[in-house]
Amino acid sequence: MVIKQVKHWMKLRTSAAALKPIAAWAAGRGAEFELTDEGQGFLITEPKNELGALRIEWGAPQREYIQGAELRLRWDLGLAAEMQMMVIERELQDSLERAVFEAYTDTLQTRMDTDTPEEMRWLVMLGKTDQWKSKVARSRFSACAVSPELATAWIGGSLGEALAVASQEAVPAGHPLVLLTQRGRLYLRTRMDDVQLSLLKGFVSLAEAAAREARRLQQRVDALDDSTQPPPL
User: Fold this and answer.
1) How many helices (H) and strands (E) would you count in the chain?
2) Is the pLDDT of residue 5 over 60?
3) Model pTM score
4) Has residue 149 been placed in a domain?
5) Strand order, beta sheet including 41-46
């Protein structure tokens, strides 16, 4: 028992030392850092972020399509429920679409299960767009939303540019990446096997670009709704 406790303590110390730069970066942002999964992962919470409460997790994967450690971001943006949009790496899209086809062309399967991840359901349900300003981003990613026009607007500005940059190093071909908005939040999922501060900062910057564009779109939608309201009596 004592030996097991000592080994556990040594593992925690080793993980803490490796993650020290991450913890320092988090502290510099006014966020809280803690080890999880017996020192094999971490959690960063940043409740006072200017865009909304931010949660960053790294550890064991929660999606089958991520083979290795998973990085997850969740940003509470206060978006309307109708703002359902997704950007997905193209090779991952192809893989999930094949899985959907194989699963739901089975004669015994008559409907899409609610347990099926949004990434798979949305590839079938939402409208895709090919209107990318960045040819590099278009070759590496696919976008969809409740309407193709909404997807086009989301990727048309800084998000498309950020995706083009990410495709050069952070997200090579075949590297799983999903960005989506639902229930008022922005989510990012990707594989990050090694803890590297520069890589983490790159993914946070990508998520921030997606978050800012989503908030900008929400403001445009709100303004349009206000302009179509009948005048007060």
Assistant:
1) 8, 9
2) no
3) 0.87
4) yes
5) 32-36, 41-46, 54-59, 70-76, 185-191, 177-182, 85-89, 141-145, 127-129
